[in-house]
Specification:
37% of the residues lie in helices and 10% in strands. It is built from eight helices and six strands; from the N terminus they run H-H-E-E-H-H-E-H-E-H-E-E-H-H. The longest helix has 16 residues. It binds iron/sulfur cluster.
């Protein structure tokens, strides 16, 4: 069975293993109030996903839930689902280029049980971290509008509120950085984005910045493997 809209467990249909995994991820996100698969609060994005489901009936094509450890102390925040990645698979950073470096780095720094995230049925387990996006729905051209980032921010706020007080948050790019500050009620001037920067936030969390591990950034070498690895190594070291 595909993971299309009609496959929801709430409709009482029998589930494939992959569907069960996707719904388990969704359950974690729902438990912490960070997700609503029926959300259509952004009309442009909801309409875009309606079209995607027609064009690609086997795609997830709904708000994408966070993935990872329910007891995470590190929350990784990306921008938004990619068309043929999270939007297809139903798991953040899974199925397209952007996830290659991320999951490999998570594996090499002890956060992931395997170096690749293939699909929601691959059995991958994250320990100590969870991955989400500032915007839960696929935006056209990978560019959410500011109003959509703002509209989705309450999900991120609830997700951050579920973290322990001494948690760490990693922003992948400037949009995620700003969304995190907004979700925590911090003015933008509280912390200026810079790759490798670490910000002590008023609520006790540490905010780390990295360039986004997008195809563009990795292929132009704006972000190298070693630069990205160093960010995670520092997060680990600071936690020790
Ligand atoms: S981007 Fe967020 S707020 Fe907007 S429709 Fe999707 S889940 Fe809802």
């Amino acid at each position: 069975m595909s993971r299309g809209v009609k496959n929801s467990a709430v409709q009482g249909e029998s589930m494939s293993h992959s569907n069960a995994e996707a719904i388990a991820d969704r359950q974690v996100a729902q438990d912490i109030g960070s997700f609503d698969v029926r959300c259509r609060a952004c009309p442009r994005l909801a309409g875009f996903l309606d079209q995607i489901r027609q064009d690609h009936p086997d795609y997830w094509a709904k708000p994408v839930p966070a993935f990872g450890d329910r007891q995470a102390w590190l929350l990784i925040v990306g921008l938004a689902p990619g068309m043929h990645g999270a939007n297809r698979s139903g798991r953040p950073f899974t199925g397209d280029h952007a996830g290659i470096l991320l999951y490999d780095t998570l594996y090499r720094t002890g956060f992931a049980s395997a170096p690749r995230s293939v699909d929601v049925a691959d059995g991958l387990v994250l320990t100590g971290c969870r991955i989400t996006n500032a915007v839960k729905c696929l935006p056209p051209q990978n560019k959410p509008q500011p109003a959509e980032v703002a509209q989705c921010n309450h999900f991120l706020a609830r997700e951050l509120a579920s973290m322990p007080q001494v948690a760490s948050v990693l922003a992948l790019g400037t949009v995620a950085h700003a969304a995190i500050l907004r979700a925590l009620g911090c003015p933008l001037r509280t912390a200026r984005f810079a790759h490798g920067a670490v910000h002590a936030l008023p609520n006790g969390m540490r905010l780390y910045d990295s360039y986004h591990c997008s195809r563009y950034n990795t292929q132009t070498r704006r972000l190298t493997d070693s630069m990205f690895h160093e960010v995670f190594t520092k997060i680990r070291a600071d936690r020790a």
